[in-house]
Design a protein that fits this description.
The structure is a single chain. By secondary structure, this protein is mainly beta. The protein has one helix and six strands; from the N terminus they run E-E-E-E-E-H-E. The strands form two sheets. It has a four-stranded antiparallel sheet with strand order 1-2-5-4, with no helix packed on it. The protein is elongated. It starts with a strand and ends with a strand. The model has no long low-confidence stretch (mean pLDDT about 75).
């Protein structure tokens, strides 16, 4: 992946990363499922999961929306790259598509 990035600005707060699948050898756009796990705070996001977007045969972007922290307020704070890194968030993904 290309590292963890974050975007802020009410009402959207999210972290995202681009997943590189170019070594897999897919021939076309795929069906992708993904989830995030980690050691802390990933379960406090509003979606309890991820959104995938911008999929090609070589890569896709994973977005995790929400807010983190017991005192956080919706629309006023969100997950940050540092929270994702310290919580050791991982993207687990599966792609289905043609390779021949």
């Amino acid at each position: 992946s290309s590292g963890i990035n974050a975007e802020y600005g009410a009402p959207y707060y999210y972290v995202y990363t681009r997943v590189d699948m170019s070594e897999c050898g897919f021939l076309g756009t795929l069906i992708i499922t993904a989830l995030v796990d980690g050691n802390s705070a990933h379960w406090q996001t509003t979606t309890s999961g991820v959104s995938t977007a911008e999929a090609t045969k070589d890569s896709f972007t994973v977005y995790l929306f929400g807010w983190v922290g017991i005192h956080s307020k919706p629309g006023q704070s969100g997950p940050t790259a540092s929270v994702a890194q310290s919580g050791q968030w991982n993207v687990n993904w599966q792609a289905i598509g043609y390779v021949c």
